Amino acid sequence: MTDALDLFNSGVLTGEREGAVLPDRKLWESKKGGVVIIECPQRIPCNPCHTSCPTGAIRPFADINDTPKVDHSLCTGCTLCVASCPGLACFVIDLTFSEDKALFKLPYEMLPLPEKGQHVQCLNRTGECIAEGTVENVTQPKKDRTYVIHISAPKGIVSEFRTIRVVK
Amino acid sequence: MKTLSTEILVIGGGAAGLSAAAEAAAAGAKVLVAESDLHLGGQLVKQTHKFFGSKDEYAGTRGFKIADILLSEIDSCKENVEIHTNTTITGFYSEDGTFTAMRGEEKYFHIKAKKTIVATGAQERLIPFPNNDLPGVYGAGAVQTLMNVYGVVPGKRVLMVGAGNIGLIVSYQLMQAGVEVAAVVEAAPRVGGYWVHAAKIRRMGVPILLRHSIRKAVGDQVITGAYITALNDRFEPEGEETYVDCDVICIAVGLSPTTEILSQAGCKMMYVPQLCGLVARRDRTMKTSNPDFFTAGDASGIEEASAAMVEGRIAGLSAAADLGYPTEHGKLDEYWGRLQALRSGEAGARICQGLECVLVNRWEDVSDD
Question: Is Thylakoid included in the keywords of this UniProt record (chain B) (predicted)?
């Protein structure tokens, strides 16, 4: 068995696959507010990403076990799916934030909550710190204690950066 | 000795039992719920994560909130429901159709019921390894109870054994409580739980070691560490042992259905690996071979709570219908549609295989042996 397969089988995404398809880069770069990146490659009975989506960007499920399909052109980056997904598998990334930085809107259910302006560690899918980011906003879209942390961080880590570590 | 009488006895006040009670009481039946714990809600009250499924199964809602929703549903027909917490059903005597019950450890009484729904849930499996009797070795259920019911952390650094949904979710909850998870070891070549649950803890830096298991616990008076090892294709230890510094070893290697009462009631039982143990044969109404006994939830096969709640509704609906209470036409089919939807994913395929073995179309066709 290959290392990449082992990595995937232990919960680390290794490349694009069904349920984890990246948006068209041109469209992505032009979208103010960002678009959703979903990493949900396994058929499981779950659809809150679709039912929470106000614009229809996350397409209706023919079968509740289907992996999500996204029409990124309809996505406004509102983060309702980010806050609704029980698997914390939705992330919004806005490439229009600045010349060299993207704005990452990531789900967060840990303590302590970071504060606006605070510097945090940017972690990749195996928990390695790959950069430092700045908290731009902290929201709670569904008022159910799943927070969405908005972090500005280098554009170079868009395909890697998926959660933060708050260092006291 | 005092004898309580009821139309429908629901044994177990968890996800399946509460759903069964709500459904039967709404149909008009008198229901008595016996729950061995001090509080209703079963495993739901420990689930701080959001549930999967569809809106019908409260997807996106945290488990303990779902318990509240079910309890308020029961409260809306409370004239039909009698709740006995801290009450264990200790046995069923088929000679006179009597249940023996125990409240606390002192009060004993009898219960008679026209119909019984066995929603007794499951028991945790444990695996043997040297020193597994030292303080610091916990079942995952105990860790969840300590943390999420009583607000007590079990220790500082945990080795999790098992990467099924429970192992993955409890690892996440431990981290939420500020406890470090040293590693998750999993004997299989892939995580058994939902991939997204694994991704959640991987990105926070927790290693999930596939084809690995615990060899022994280390400690004098209490756990101070553990040795883990890689496994070969035949699940035999291979290579050198690795030491893991930890003060808690949390065992999450699966559950077995709790079915003694069903056996005592003479229900035809069957060992079904896909449903994780001995379960009662049942028809589409969740009725067993004893026409007065129904089964639902983990007691009928280990599955997600979302499915347990639908099974509970089917059992409650069917028991009420058998007593002559009018029930909505087509509801059974609607519930089966929901179960089929929940079971059509990767994990559901195994469940469906198991159900093919135990599900009975016509009891007349089932032989007596």
Answer: no
Query: β-strand A101-108 against A147-154: which pairing, if any?
Result: antiparallel
Residue B204 CA to residue B175 CA, distance in Å, equals: 9
ω into A54 cis (within 30 of 0):
no
Pick the residue from chain B with its C-alpha nearest to A42.
B195
Can you list the domains of chain B with their CATH numbers? 3-123+255-365 (3.50.50.60), 126-251 (3.50.50.60)
CB of A144 less than 8 A from some CB of B: yes
How far is it, in rounded angstroms, from Cα A133 to Cα A122?
6
Measure the CA–CA gap between A140 and A149, rounded to whole angstroms: 9
**Element at B82 (helix H, strand E):** strand B81-84
Task: Of A106, A105, A157, give the one whose Cα is nearest residue A131.
Answer: A157
Closest A-chain CA to B304: A45
- Find the radius of gyration of the CA atoms of chain B: 21
How buried is residue B188: exposed, middle or buried, by Cβ count under 10 Å (0-12/13-18/19+)?
middle
Measured between CB atoms, which of B163, B196, B202 is closest to A127?
B202
> Nearest residue on chain B to A89, judged by CA atoms?
B196
CA-to-CA dists, residue A54 to A23, B183, B334, angstroms: 19, 39, 27
Q: Which residues on neighbouring strands pair with residue A43, listed in sequence order?
A: none
Among B81, B57, B29, smallest CA distance to B316 is for B29
Burial of A151 (0-12, 13-18, 19+ CB in 10 A): buried
Half-sphere exposure of A128 (CA within 13 A, CB side): 5
Contact residues, chain A, for B52 at CB < 8 Å: 44-46, 86-87
In A42-118, beta strands by DSSP E? 90-94, 101-108
Residue type, B43: Q
pLDDT in tens, A151-166: 999 999 999 999 999 9
Please state, in angstroms and rounded to a whole number, the distance separating the CA atoms of residues B153 and B110.
39
What is the residue type of B9?
L
Name the residue facing A44 among B52, B191, B204 (closest C-beta): B52
The answer to whether the predicted template modeling score (pTM) of the entire model surpasses 0.80 is yes
Q: Taking Cα atoms as reference points, which of B112, B138, B93 lies closest to residue B34?
A: B112
**A1 vs B342: CB contact, 8 Å cut-off?**
no
β-sheet bridge partners, residue B301: none
pLDDT tens readout for residues B164-215? 999 999 999 999 999 999 999 999 999 999 999 999 999 999 999 999 999 9
Which residues 53-72 in chain A show a CB within 8 A of chain B? 63-65
What are the backbone angles phi and psi of residue A58, rounded to the nearest 5°?
A: -85, 110
